[in-house]
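Internal tracking record. Fields below are filled automatically when a chain is submitted to the structure queue. Please do not edit lines marked as system-generated. If the sequence contains nonstandard residues, flag them in the REMARKS field before resubmitting.
Queue: standard
Priority: normal
Entity type: single polypeptide chain
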Amino acid sequence: MDTVFLHHNLLYARGHQKMQSSEHYFPDHALGIMLSGESHYFSNEGTFVMQEGTIGLLRRNELFKKLKKVGPTGEPPSLISLFLDQKTLQQYAADNGIPKQSTYRGNAMLDLTSNVFLKGFFDSLLPYIDQPKKLTAKMAELKTYEAIELLLQAGLSYQTFLFDFQEPHKIDLETYMNHNFKYNIPLASFAKLAGRSLSTFKRDFTKIFETTPEKWLQNKRLEQAHYLLSKREMRPSEVYLEVGFENLSHFSFAFKKTFGLTPTELTEQQRTTSY
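SYSTEM-GENERATED OUTPUT FOLLOWS
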């Protein structure tokens, strides 16, 4: 993946592989357009697909898995993304007299493809891909404010979306982790999303699960992997990413250590007994 930072909050990314899978947690809102190829976003909210020309807005503090694929004619996935950080939005709210907002309750991923003004906005960024040095700090600031203005013009709900500055509150840790163990993110990110400092997260976690987060996450992911391999008949190459392992070799090693056979051996065993 080639990533060109046009500025600190503006980036252009282009892939080379036919398929790329990754997991993400963004602390900031992200507004982007798919220039070619496809991106599939999987979250607890469902699946959001960005094809060529799709404009999407992703809310901060959301966990999701992303699969990038080549387009129908073989073009690699590429996109431009603009990140709207809290400091910039708070300054904008102060400068423009935007009042304190209630908690945002809508969808975390929004489709804005039909917005012709946002399409024109992204078209204006295309020349900077080849000449990123032309995008000065002042120009990037103006472009960021332009994007905010365009989102606010898109509807009243976007004001709450952008200017709800509340941080995640302390939530039921057991329920949260059972719903989100498949996301391979740092413990510090899990802690923030659960409304805790890292030390409090680890302390609360040990009280609830009677083991460390690291051990619990690995065991939980392996149990889910065993279920998907044995009951859903998925392939090992599909399962390791689905349950949150970074690579297939580590997954195979941990699986055999726990269950006494590799994922491939389990699937072969399942196939033999099914005949």
